[in-house]
């Protein structure tokens, strides 16, 4: 047994370290759990002093004097439990953290073992024991409760810092020390060298608590933690597996000899089964919610929370199947905001996002509840609706949207007006989803080419125009490298003097398949795709070189 002066010196130093660490590293409003731990340490130290100084307090078998240290030890356990519970409440990462049920599983398993090997044997021979000895048998129950709390702290989904491991080591030392004390009280291991570790383990818990308080990470034990998802791990899996086989092991190694003993074991086993079922159900529900959340993220726009292109395609396929069987018509309105880039360039992307959210809200408020509003690109929205065929609802909705957009959007920078270009495509259910989206997109470009702030319907001739445009765009991308571009010079004549005053350099394109392509066709394509920058620089160099040759 450790000498009292040494024990008291180390314990007082650890208590002082806990106080100093709390004052140094913890904010004033978050110190309550640590003060509870300090009170527990002080009570435990007082209990040890009384046990070592009061005559008969540590006698075996225990006499009436054994109650005296318990007057401090029991409140110490209450204070320790309160501090750990308060700490767990403050730092819990998520309300649905499975650490609760896992810790409860482990606690019930330990409680079952404690009942079978410590509590029940003590109660079974209570007529030959003193009251302090019988009372000491119930201390493992308190340790089981502490074990459940500390296990939650250690295996919860929060961030694990050194201070947490030190605090866990302190609680573990108390648990093992109490176990040895219970064995001593039971007389199941008299004279064992392990019993000499009792005071050493309690002293280790003092040191570990003081070290945890002095470590800078101690503040994280009372702060809300971000969720850190982890795999179950070998130790945690082994602990749960051990709990599952505990009832069978108890029945085999130490079968109950009395009815009431068997009833308590049965109650704990039933409780263990209930918690296991809860664990399975919660794990399944968590997985289902995670899958639903992942599905929502995959099918919805993160900014506006509207359905995205993927969900739109799925919905078109589903609606088209119904339309074909019920004689309905599917209409798609492809909406692109005119000159949206100017909003981002002028006020920044934050204001641009504000505008997109405001547009999403206005579109959603305009359509019927059964219609679908989607955001499929930067400033591109799609409205899908199903009506009886034939129907003028799509055209009516397009007209109403143009009218609604005349009202300014109130943003953080003030009122902003933006206009839409709307393309409309229809299907009786025989069109594939991608084709219907493409057709509506094509009609939208027709609306833009007509001057913007308008709507246009798709037709087959329009599709041919778009396909021709795409072919020209692809061919134009390599025209400069293939030497298909040339410069023609248009004379500029002063009509008053009939003198030549200069030349206008004009770009011309001769393609081996398309022949001579009109500038009215390829110049707008070059401007839209940005190819005009490279080809314009080439044109300037060619014209300057020609001027040098003419002057020479």
What does this entry look like structurally?
It contains 18 helices and ten strands. Helix 11 crosses helix 15, helix 16 crosses helix 17 (519-529) and helix 17 (519-529) crosses helix 18 (531-551). It is 62% helix and 12% strand. It has helices at 4-25, 32-53, 67-91, 99-124, 131-137, 139-155, 162-186, 197-214, 234-253, 259-299, 309-326, 340-347, 349-366, 393-404, 433-449, 460-476, 519-529, 531-551, and strands at 328-337, 372-375, 380-388, 409-411, 414-416, 420-427, 455-457, 485-494, 499-511, 515-517. The chain has three domains: 4-294, Rhopdopsin 7-helix transmembrane proteins, CATH 1.20.1070; 309-458, 2-Layer Sandwich (Alpha-Beta Plaits), CATH 3.30.70; 471-551, no CATH class. It is elongated. By secondary structure, the chain is α+β, with helices and mostly antiparallel strands. It has a five-stranded mixed beta sheet, with helices on both faces. It has a three-stranded antiparallel beta sheet with strand order 8-9-10. Strand 4 and strand 5 (414-416) form a beta hairpin.
Q: How many H/I helices?
A: 18
**Side-by-side strand order of the widest sheet:** 2-3-1-6-7
CATH-defined fold name of the largest domain: Rhopdopsin 7-helix transmembrane proteins
Order of helices and strands: HHHHHHHHHHHEHHEEHEEEHEHEEEHH
Which architecture name of the largest domain does CATH use?
Answer: Up-down Bundle
Q: Judging from the principal axes of the Cα atoms, what is the shape? A: elongated
Distance between the termini: 112 Å
Runs in which pLDDT lies below 50 for 5 or more consecutive residues are none
Task: Summarize model confidence as the mean pLDDT.
Answer: 83
CATH class of the largest domain: Mainly Alpha
Please state roughly what percent of the residues sit in beta strands, choosing from under 5%, 5-15%, 15-25%, 25-35%, 35-45% or over 45%. 5-15%
- DSSP summary, beta strand count: 10
Major β-sheet, in short?
Answer: 5 strands, mixed
Helix content: 55-70%
Radius of gyration: 40 Å
Q: Give the helix/strand class.
A: alpha+beta
The figure for the number of domains is: 3
